[in-house]
Write a structure and sequence with these properties.
Family: Belongs to the chromate ion transporter (CHR) (TC 2.A.51) family.
Organism: Alteribacter lacisalsi
Number of domains: 1
Order of helices and strands: HHHHHHHHHHHHHHH
Distance between the termini: 47 Å
Helix content: over 70%
Keywords: Cell membrane, Membrane, Transmembrane, Transmembrane helix
Subcellular location: Cell membrane
Structural class: mainly alpha
Shape: globular
Number of strands: 0
Membrane topology: Multi-pass membrane protein
Length: 398
């Protein structure tokens, strides 16, 4: 068990150091590492986990990582996975809070290269998942319709609505199909423990604002603000921006200029976007404030995945749920494909040079079977060279 926990920590740490591009790109990196390379779970279990993370509030990629760690080595594995994936960006953003006016890293050439890498990684993940999760006309149609709807109607709850509709469609299309013998998602957690996590989630959500009013302590105010933001946001890291802005700027904890500078820096570091809280907490209350804010914003995600995954493992085997899950899994492919276009493609590809670079990296991943970490290194070096040749030295951040 201890060996598995260490393995999970170091694998997730490497992902935390190299997974640029936001939550959807993270899911591509996860799929390549955990499903294709290490085979810790199959495509169906991975898609189920991704679908569950879309239903519940919080950072989807972090919750998927926590879930994989939980399935691999129980609660210690979940903790190890979370710490490894989150630690690099937390450390960088806490440091950036102290150096905000000294360096500008957001225009560096290697950041440009890593944005291009994200395009190739997500495209590879979509191609692989599409072959297994949308192999027939009906599921491919569900994926394409979901892609179209996500691109045309983007709201906080739209993805959840489309997943539900895809589940309904999957039920009616596949309700007469013989149920599959799906393997259990083993978590090592009892239903009582899971229910306790859900109870704690709602208890903290209700009582923290009252405690904040009763006790005038800055750490408690920070914890309440960031816990509420983490508990109420659907749709991933970018959606948490307005929630955090309302919590910290009007109250004077963080200035408006500091807020925007930190958000720009967050786009330039790997790992979950929710670590923006690490920067904000440090600006408001030093290193201790950064650690409190980090713990508070991720705690809801942790409680929700621990509280729902054991029940989800049981529910997904129900003969009524199974055909619905086929539709949901196809919708996940469509959602990832939509996100490949916006925000990943639109924020990374501006010229023919960018597209050519992305196509080359995609070929290295898919046809030359290069490991993702090597493609990331090629992206870093190539991004620096292309920035210098085509866009000028400003992209080096000099």
């Amino acid at each position: 068990m201890f060996k598995n926990v260490l393995e999970i920590f170091f694998v997730s740490l490497r992902l935390g150091l190299t997974s640029f591009g936001g939550p959807v790109a993270h899911l591509g990196y996860f799929h390549n590492e955990y499903v294709k390379r290490r085979k810790w779970l199959d495509d169906k279990a991975y898609a189920d986990l991704v679908a569950l993370s879309q239903f519940i509030p919080g950072p989807a990629s972090s919750q998927v990582g926590i879930g994989i760690g939980l399935m691999r080595a129980g609660l210690p594995g979940a903790v190890a996975s979370f710490i490894g994936f989150t630690l690099p960006s937390v450390a960088v953003l806490i440091g950036f809070a102290f150096m905000i006016q000294t360096y500008d890293l957001t225009d560096a050439g290697w950041i440009y290269g890593l944005k291009i890498v994200a395009v190739a990684v997500v495209a590879q993940a979509i191609m692989g998942m599409g072959k297994k999760l949308a192999p027939d006309r009906e599921r491919a149609s569900i994926a394409i319709v979901t892609l179209i709807l996500v691109l045309l109607w983007q709201t906080v709850y739209s993805q959840v609505a489309f997943i539900v509709l895809a589940g309904v469609a999957g039920y009616f299309v596949y309700r007469h199909q013989k149920p599959e013998d799906t393997p259990d998602i083993l978590t090592g957690l009892s239903y009582r423990f899971a229910a306790g996590c859900l109870g704690l989630f709602f208890t903290l959500l209700a009582l923290l604002p009252l405690a904040r009013q009763m006790f005038e302590a800055q750490w408690l105010a920070l914890f309440d603000s960031f816990y509420r933001a983490g508990a109420l946001v659907f749709g991933g890291g970018h959606v948490v921006l307005p929630l955090l802005e309302r919590e910290v700027v009007p109250s004077g904890l963080v200035g408006a200029d500091e807020f925007l500078a930190g958000y720009g820096a967050t786009q330039a570091v790997p790992g979950p976007l929710f670590t923006f809280a690490s920067y904000l907490g440090t600006v408001a209350g030093g290193i201790s404030g950064g650690l409190i804010a980090t713990a508070a914003i991720f705690l809801p995600a942790f409680l929700l995945i621990l509280g729902t995954l054991p029940f989800w493992s049981r529910i997904r085997k129900h003969p009524v749920i199974q055909p619905a899950v086929l539709g949901v899994n196809a919708a996940v492919v469509g959602i990832l494909a939509a996100a490949l276009y916006n925000p990943i493609f639109t924020s990374a590809i501006d010229t023919a040079v960018d597209f050519a670079f992305a196509a080359g990296l995609f070929g290295l991943l898919v046809y030359w079977k290069m490991p993702a970490w090597l493609v990331v290194l090629i992206g870093i070096v190539g991004g620096a060279v292309i920035s210098w040749l085509f866009y000028g030295q400003i992209l080096f951040g000099l």
